[in-house]
Every structure is written in C-alpha cells, then in structure tokens.
Design goal:
By secondary structure, this protein is mostly helical. The chain has helices at residues 7-19, 31-43, 48-64, 66-82, 86-91, 100-112, 122-129, 135-140, 144-153, 162-186, 189-195, 204-224, 234-257, 261-284, 292-308, 313-336, 344-372, 378-398, 407-421, 429-469, 476-484, 493-520, 523-528, 531-537, 539-576, 585-598, 605-637, 645-658, 677-685. The chain is elongated, with a radius of gyration of 32 Å.
C-alpha cells in the first residue's frame, strides 16, 4: 500500500462515493457533493493534468463497480430532480434591475454579510459546492471528452430521459422570463431615445416575446410526446439577431448622442439576456450546436464562474466602465487629431500655440509664488492655488494655446483608435507607425514651445520686477526651495511628476466625460433655447456660444479640473499625512528661472545643470505616465486585449533609424504624409 502513490487519493474518493445514495425519505444531502468538490480542489494547485487525472479516477471507479455506479447515479438524479433551475438560468450572471450605485452597494453588503442558503436553487447549490473564487478555473480545465465519458457511464446521453425533460421545462420557463425582460428593456424610453425612434409599429424586442410564447406552446407539446425540438427556435433566433442589430445601432448612436450610466447598464443587460436566451435554445435542442454535451458543460462552467464572481466589485466596475470608457476615449481621440501634425505649417502652428501657453504658465508660476507669500491657512491656500491654475488653463484654451503635457492623454486615445481599426492585428501597422511618428514630433515641438518661452518669460519678468521693485519677486529662501524641488536625487521630484502624470490622464478622462455629457444632455441645443440668455445676448451670440460649447465643453472642464487637481494636491497630502505634491515640466522650467534669478544668477554650472536635468526628467515622467494610462485605458475600452506590441515597436524603431528626422520635424508635404491615417480621419471629419 505504501508503494501505491494513488492509494490515499483513491481511498478518499471511494469514501466520498460510498456515502452517496438515494434517500426516499429525505432530500439528497449536498454535503457529499461538497466533499467531492473539495477532493478535486486538492489537486487544483498542481496542474490541469492533475485535475484530469482525478476526473478519470472518478469515472474509472464508477466503471469498475456497477453497484457503486447505480448508487451514485441514483443520488445525483435525486439531487438534480429536487433542484430548481428557472431563476438560476434566467438571472445568474445577468445584471439586475437596479442602478449602478445600488448594484455596487449590494455587492459590498453581500461580501460583508453573505446571504443564507434557504432553498435548493441551482445557484445556491453552486455557492455551497464551489466556495473559492477561482474554482471555475480548474473546472474549465476538464476536457469535454472526459465529461462525455462520465455522462456515458451514468447513462445520461439520452435526451429523452425524464430528468432532462424536467430540466427542459424549467429552461422554457426561464426563457419566458428572459423574453419579458428583453421586451421591457427594448422599449424603455432611454433605449428608444438612443435609437432615435419615437414610435415603432413593430419592435423586434416585442416580437421575440410573442414568437417565444408560440414556441413554448409547441415545445411543451413535443416534450409531452417525447419528440425532439429540432429547429424550433430558428425564427426566434432571427428576431434575436434583429434585437442585437438594434443594440449595435444604439451603441453607434451613442457615439453621436453620448451615453449615460443608466443606458449603458440597460444595453449590457439586454446583451446578456439575449446571449443567455441563445444558450438555452441550444441546450434545448431548438438551435443547432456542434456538441450538445460540450455546450452543457460550458454552460455549467459559466454558471459556476458567475456564482464565484457574483460579489466581485471589479467585474461590475469593469463591465460598465468599458462601455463608458469607449465613448469617453472616442471623444478624447477626436480631440487628439489636432495633436498629430502632418504638414510643416501645422507643425509651426503648434509651436506658436505652445509658446503662448509657456508665456502664460510663467506668469501663473509667479502668481503661485505670490500666493504662497500670503501665508494663508492651508485650505484657503489650496483654493487660491486651484483657482490660479484652473482659470489660467481655461484662459490658455480660450486663447487657442496648448499645454504639451496634456497631449499624451488625447493622442493615446487617437493611436488606440487607429489600432482598433486594425483589430489589434496591426494589419495597418505602417499607418499606425505614421501616426506615432507625427505624434512624436508634435510632442517634441510642443514641449520645447512650452519650456523655452516659460523659462525666458520667467527670467525677463523676474529681472524686470527686480529693476522696478528693487528686489527679486521671489525671495532667496523661496528660490532655494524651488531649485531643491527640481533635484531628482535630493527631492521627490520624480514621484511627484508621476502624480502630475496621473492628473494629466484624469484631465483627459474628464474632458471626454464632459464632452459625452454635453452631447447626451444636448447642452448646446438647450442653450440656444434659454429665453433669458437669448434676451441678454441676442439670438446670434447665443447660437455662437452654443456652437463654441458644443466643441469645447470637455476641454474647458478638463483644463479647469486639471488646475484644481494641481492646486489641491499638496493640501490633500497634508490632510492624509502623505508626501503628495506635483511637479510639472513647464512650471518646473519657470521655477528654475525664478530660482536662478533669486540667487542673482550666481549659481555654479553644476547647480544649473542639475536643475535642468531635473526639469527634463520631470517632463519625461509626466509624459510617460499620462500616455501609458490613457493608451491602455483606450485599448481596454475598445476590446483590444492582444496587441502585437513587439511588431509595432519594431516598425517604429526601423522607421526611426531609417528617417530619424521625421520624429522631430515634418518631411516635405509630398512625402510619407500622403498615406497618413490622420489625414484620412481629418478628411472624413470635414
């Protein structure tokens, strides 16, 4: 016995199986199945092979003993016969009829205080048998061939057996529940508004319910006569296709009209219900399937996974935000088109816009230093810092200037859109590489357009004010602090630059969110119809204001909130007792100038070089963090899970070594720009 490595494993299995048996006086005890699942779970940490080996051991034990097989078969059939299925089939894994906030609160509450088991629904049986959140993973590793072998041993391959007939009747009840839900959601005012249809004489969402009622009557009759349900759901499948077409249309309309959390949840619920309806039709035999046992096993694994993840806050958040993120990042990608310069005239236009922003930021940096000298209480200091930055950034946008570090969050979404057009396979990799090349040179000129004027303006202003006032505008103590904050070794400049990068990413998200909100609530159209505004400004000016906001609401909101985030970061760190602050490349360049002038230009070359390196590294961290966050968010929102990153990187490196100048300055207009993806997008937008 000691030489047999399987003795203990097999002995434990036989002990569990011998405990199983039908009981005519009591309900089947689920504890035996729980012990069996625990026996399987013991092998889960090893490998998929170990799970398969244990499953084969189970089948062999039943094959080798007819008495044991009959005993286990009777127990399982009694357990399945006593279980209730319809609510599990119709609801498990499908969003409930609740708001996002309610769904989130319910999941948190269920995680803190799980519900008790009071009846014998399949859902609660799954909850008792599969207690670990990753149980579905080892369950999915069992092959369909192994399951088929088990079904054969238990004599469950006959679809006419009474147990399956009972479950099929439960499936029909579940399908009617799904059909009612689909019909109700499909004619909901939010969905109808998104489709742009005020009245519909026929709706596929309603028609599918009527067709299902007819199909159910035929199905019950066929089941009573032990007849198969072959092709009974073909017409219903056509109607479900039409429903999915309407959902796709709703998503397409959402690109133009915007989308809300409520509408997003309704569309997700519709998709889930239709997919569940199709799966039940396949299990019934009303729709064809390649392998009915495989379909049954896959459905069982899906239910197990949904039960394992029923309290997952991450899954709820991800499922909803993917839809919203797509709409938001699409608006951001449209804003990002102007940040990819194709021609030299566009290149120098971007340079001028960046230079204007650099001049204003130099003044904002001086204003912040002045506010610091007031020694206000921390809260009010944060308020004034936020207003200084927020209003300043709004002015920059109103004047048509651009902040270089805000570009990555926009251009990342634009690049993700180009990759999505290639389905993540990079079939148009050269076009994507062209776009990245354009973004790189635009970013290059924008950075220098911000930094050099900011440094020069700060120097001129500091010298001029010193001449007029007789003393530097920034005290020497403040100047020393400014320079110390740029030192990448002696300060937390780089972590603080990363925090600023996160804020830059959030500013892009906020901009996309408010663009989406403006479109969804039709804010420009409402402004055109406000009586008091038309009376004050006149019809022409009201229309101009509405037209401007239709294109700039998101940008204005993103700029203002970005300023508030920068201004309040230090105060939040003070409240939390954490070293939270921000470092931004353009402000860093201006602070460097003010710090040098405060020392009357008497710094050593090494000190100036360290400050310059600090400014450069701060900028790189700003750009890297904001771009990476925006890029991967946009890819996830578009469903691009597998990206040929190495292939794309290889093409970009090849392009760089072949024509490095294109990454810093546009080629002649008759060059590679003709095949550019951005050019085609701009043409389409016109």
């Amino acid at each position: 016995m000691a030489t047999n490595p399987n003795y203990n494993i097999r002995g434990a299995l036989l002990t569990i199986l011998n405990g199983m048996g039908p009981d005519n006086e009591h309900e089947a005890d689920i504890a035996h199945l729980c012990h069996l699942m625990e026996w399987f779970r013991e092998g889960a940490p090893g490998s998929d092979f170990e799970i398969e080996r244990r499953f084969s051991m189970l089948v062999e034990a039943l094959e080798q003993s007819n008495d044991l097989r009959v005993q286990v078969k009777g127990y399982l059939e009694q357990f399945l016969k006593e279980s209730r299925y319809r609510y599990t089939f119709a609801e498990l894994g499908i969003l409930g009829n609740e708001t996002f906030g309610q769904a989130m609160k319910n999941r948190i509450f269920q995680r803190l205080l799980p519900a008790t088991v009071e009846d014998k629904t399949v859902r609660e049986s799954l909850s008792l048998m599969f207690t670990k959140p990753d149980d579905h993973e080892w369950l999915e590793s069992i092959s369909v061939a192994s399951w088929t072998r088990l079904f054969h041993v238990l004599e469950w391959l006959n679809p006419a057996m009474p147990l399956w007939k009972r479950i099929q009747h439960e499936m029909l009840e579940a399908m009617e529940m799904l059909a009612v839900r689909i019909a109700a959601l499909g004619i909901d005012s939010e969905v109808v508004r998104c489709l742009g249809i005020s009245e519909r004489h026929t709706s596929p969402f309603v028609e599918q319910h009527l067709e299902l009622r007819s199909m159910i009557a035929q199905a019950h009759e066929k089941l009573s006569h032990m007849e198969p349900l072959h092709d009974l759901g073909v017409h219903l499948d056509v109607l479900l296709d039409q429903c999915q077409g309407q959902i796709k249309k709703a998503y397409a309309q959402a690109r133009v009209q915007g989308i809300s959390v409520t509408l997003s949840m309704q569309l997700i619920r519709l998709e889930q219900s239709i997919n569940r309806m199709r799966r039940l039709l396949q299990l019934l035999g009303a729709l064809p399937t390649d392998n009915r046992v495989g379909t049954c096993v896959q459905f069982f694994c899906t239910l197990t996974k949904e039960e394992n993840r029923k309290h997952s806050i991450t899954d709820l958040w991800r499922g909803l935000t993917d839809k919203l993120a797509l709409r938001i990042t699409e608006h951001a990608s449209q804003s990002g088109e102007k940040y990819a310069t194709e021609t030299r005239s566009e290149y120098w236009k971007m340079a001028r816009a960046a230079m204007g922003a650099g001049v204003i930021i130099a003044l904002l940096s001086l204003f912040k230093a002045g506010i610091s000298s007031w020694h206000l209480p921390p809260f009010w200091e944060a308020v004034f810092f936020s207003l200084n930055y927020g209003i300043g950034f709004v002015i920059i946008h109103l004047l048509g200037f651009t902040i270089a570090t805000k570009q990555p969050a926009m251009t990342a979404a634009r690049i993700a859109a180009a990759i999505d057009a290639a389905n993540g396979r990079l079939s148009s990799a050269d076009r994507v590489a062209d776009l990245i090349t354009q973004v790189a040179r635009t970013q290059f000129i924008s950075i220098w357009g911000n930094v050099l004027p900011a440094f020069a303006t700060a120097t001129v202003v500091a010298v001029g004010l010193t001449f007029l006032l007789g003393e530097p505008p920034v005290a020497i103590e403040k100047g020393e602090k400014m320079l110390l904050e740029l030192n990448p070794l002696l300060s937390a400049a780089l972590p603080h630059a990363a925090i600023a990068g996160v804020f830059l990413f959030l500013a892009g998200v906020i901009a996309g969110y408010y663009d989406n909100l403006s479109i969804y609530h039709r804010i420009p159209d409402r402004i055109r119809k406000v009586p008091w505004l038309r009376k004050r400004l006149g019809v022409v000016r009201s229309n101009k204001l509405a037209d401007y906001l239709s294109k700039n609401t998101g940008a204005l909101a993103g700029n203002f909130f970005f300023g508030c985030m920068l201004g309040s970061a230090g105060f939040i760190g003070l409240i939390l007792g954490l070293p939270i602050d921000i470092r931004h490349i353009t402000f860093a360049a201006a602070n460097m100038a003010y710090g040098i002038q405060a020392h009357e230009f008497m710094l050593s070359g090494l000190e100036v070089a360290i400050a310059a390196v600090g400014v450069f590294l701060i900028g790189m961290v700003n750009l890297a963090v904001s771009f990476s966050l925006a890029f991967f968010t946009a890819l996830r929102a578009r469903g691009v899970r597998k990206l040929e990153s190495l292939s794309l990187a290889g093409r970009i490196f090849k392009r760089f070594f072949k024509s490095p100048g294109e990454f810093f300055y546009p080629p002649k207009e008759n060059g590679v720009a003709e095949n550019n993806v951005t050019g085609s997008v701009k043409t389409e937008s016109k």
